[in-house]
Structure formats: C-alpha cells, structure tokens
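Translate sequence into structure tokens.
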Amino acid sequence: MSKKAFLLSSLFLCLAAPSRAEPVWEIGRHDNQNAEFALAPDRYGEFGDDGFFVVGQSDPREDWPYVHPGPQDGWAGGRPHTFTIVFGLTSAPTLGPCKLLCDLVDTQGRLVAGENGPLVVPQTVGAAEVAVAPDGTVLAGGQSIGRLRVVEFADRAVLTPAGARAFRAPAGMEPDAAGNVAITQAHLEGSNVNAMEEMVQMVDSLRTFQACYKIVQVQDELNAKAVNELARV
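Result follows.
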C-alpha cells in the first residue's frame, strides 16, 4: 500500500486476450469521478473500516470508500490498509493473462492538467506504459494523449497556499505559459536546504543563547550580591 491516500475513480479486472479485453468484474466507472463510491465526494474524515467488496453483492456506495489511505494518513489511523475484493467465476476463463486496471486521481481529486484539458490515460494502458517526454508530452502505450500544462506567474508573492502543495491565484489573474522548462519523469525534487549549513547555524544559535544566558546569570548573581552586602551595611 502506498504511503499516500489515493482517490479512486474505477477498478476492474479483465482477461486480456490477444484480440479483446473481456471484463470479469468492475467497481465504479471509468469517468474520473468518484460519486459512485462510499464517503464521496469529501467525507474522508469519516473513514473507518478498510474496503471489503463482494462482487455481485456489495454496493460501491456503501462498501467501497472512494479514498484509499496510506500509513502516513493520521486521519485514517496512521496504519497500513488492506482492501479486499472477493469474486467467483461460473466457468474457467480462456487461457491468457489477467490485468487489474485502476483509474486513480490525485490526493485531492484533481485531474492532471493538459494544455487542451485534463489528461486521461485509457483504462487499457498500464502504469508501466505511461511516459512523459522532456517537453511535457504524455505518452500512453506509445500514443500521445496530450501535453502537460506548465505555467508561471509574474508575481509569485500574490499566490496563497491552498493546501496539499497547491497555491491559489487571486481572482482574475491568469498565468503565463512557462518557458525553458524540461520535465523529468520518475524523479523527486531535491531539498532546497543544505543540511550541513543548517546544522552549523543551529549550533551557532545554541552557543549564542548559552552566552546570553550566562551573561544574564552573572548579572543576576551580581545584583543578589549587591543587595546582600548593602543589607549588612
């Protein structure tokens, strides 16, 4: 299970025959929406038990939550989660591989923005078949499905935090297309903090505090001594 929470749009198992994909079962719809699932659209705080779904009997609106939390999500207990799907077959399937296909949106339910609208990966394309070119072109199964929309604002100071690593622009402000940008797939952004420099600054601040504390302590002792000696006089 991932360490992040995911929002689910659809989930289905299919027998991927050479000439066709025959669905075995399906939960939800491939529409990048979550209205047909339990707790949708935003009642994630009420998450209780992990999903347990019996194909043909369970109702996604009651038995399959739209949000799948990870062990770092404190609102869901801060623990690993296991979602179970039980199904049976009336007859043995034809020989061939099976694929479990998931249609996921991000942790806040937002779609990936493209230059000409949201980018949607066909449900027959697996995650390993999705690639992003340096210019932002997204390829699914070798076919282009659009290009990532990358923008910038002339004055970043006016942007306000909106949570979940997102920012909100003032009403009426339109961004400009970002120039000279290269997209790198499967990479994490490095920290903008130098650990050694921060450690040195922390030790320096600690030593400064200790020196100031010592000065105050000495001054307090001098004041006490002066009071005691004046009292004897």
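Note: The two ends are 78 Å apart (CA to CA).
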